[in-house]
Structure formats: structure tokens, C-alpha cells
Amino acid sequence: MANGAPHKVDTVRDVLGEAADQALRAGEIIRRLRDFVTRGETEMRIENLPELIREATDLALVGTGPHGVQVRLRFDPRADAVLANRVQLQQVMLNLIRNAQEAMAQSEWRELEVVTARLDHKSIEVAVADRGSGLPDGIVEHLFEPFHTTKIDGMGLGLSICRSIVEAHRGELRYEPNRGGGAIFRMTLPVPLEQ
């Protein structure tokens, strides 16, 4: 088009039209996923939080090999139960742990820590902390928005969907830099009523 080749204008117009259609289609898929999660149409029940986290961690670490990540799990005994959809909450944990692994791929010190804590009579916190490269400031403000990513082959949907799942559980997902380098993602969830 820069050279003014008229025979290419139609081709470029077609390609741009197709790209626009695909972008709209992708946006609609994301909207439907978010609606599905936030409508709360999935079954929630009281789950054992440490067990749920152990299973998700084991799954996330499959195939990491002998030079994988050293994982430390610390569970507050006062934060052992959560009202959740097990599969959805494990998907959040899986995504956060895999993101942490990728962030530490070039790090000398590959340590991941997952900690639960009872914050008060109403809420539990799950923190996933890594010693990776951390996040650039320009990314942080758009971190949970769809299609924003630091990964070369990423789609930028994982954290957006994670936040939707956590919010559907009446919780909150947020990021903060790790003082020792890396990132911490903190997820708060409500304590089940009978706890």
C-alpha cells in the first residue's frame, strides 16, 4: 500500500476486514466466558483449601524436570475451608503457579511460595509469590484486562479470567511486587458461613 500498488489494496482490505472480524469474535468469546463465570451457574460447596491447592500445585509442576521450581506451601489451620467451585478455583491456582514458573525461567533462585492466611472472621487470603523478574510498570495498570500480556505467545486472557472467577466467588484478586524481587498475587475469598 505504501508504494501505491492498486492491486494490493483489495487484498489488504480483505485481510484487515478478516482481522477485524476475528477480533470481534475473540471479544465475544471472552465476554461469554466472563458472563458464564460471573453468573454463578456453577455448583459451589465447602472445599478443603489446602487439598485444593496441593492438587493444583502438583498439576502445575508436572513436567518441570529436576531443575524446576522449589515450592513451599504454608497453610494457616484457620483457613482450611472455602466455599468454592473446586475446578474453577484450581484453574486460578494453576494459572497463577504457571505464570510464576514462566516468570522464573531465567532466574537463578526459582522459589515459589503459596501461603494461606485467615485475615479476619470474614475472609481468607491465598498468596502466590515468586522470585521472578517482576512486572514492568506499564503492564501493571492493565494486568487484569483481556489481551494484555508480557508473553510472546500469550493471549492475555489468563489473569482476566482468573479475576472473573475470583469475583464470582465474592473475592478479590490483586497484584503487588515482591520485595525480594518477583511478584505476589493475593486472592481473598470469603469464609464459609458456618466457619
Query: What is the string of helix and strand elements?
Result: HEHEEHEEHHEE
Q: Cα-atom Rg, whole angstroms?
A: 20 Å
Number of helical segments with 4 or more residues: 5
Number of strands: 7
How much of the sequence is in beta strands?
A: 15-25%
Distance between the termini: 66 Å
CATH fold naming of the largest domain: Heat Shock Protein 90
Question: How many structurally independent domains?
Answer: 2
Mean pLDDT: 79
Give the SSE layout.
Elements: H1 6-38, E1 45-48, H2 49-60, E2 70-74, E3 81-84, H3 86-103, E4 111-118, E5 123-130, H4 137-140, H5 158-168, E6 172-177, E7 183-190
Parallel strand pairs: 2-4
Antiparallel strand pairs: 1-3, 4-5, 5-7, 6-7
Helix pairs in contact: 1-5, 2-3, 3-5
Describe this structure in words.
There is one protein chain. The protein is an alpha+beta fold. The protein folds into two domains: 39 residues; 147 residues, Histidine kinase-like ATPase, C-terminal domain (Heat Shock Protein 90, 2-Layer Sandwich). It is 40% helix and 22% strand. A five-stranded mixed β-sheet has the order 2-4-5-7-6. Strands 1-3 form a two-stranded antiparallel sheet. α1 packs parallel to α5 and α2 packs across α3. The termini are far apart.
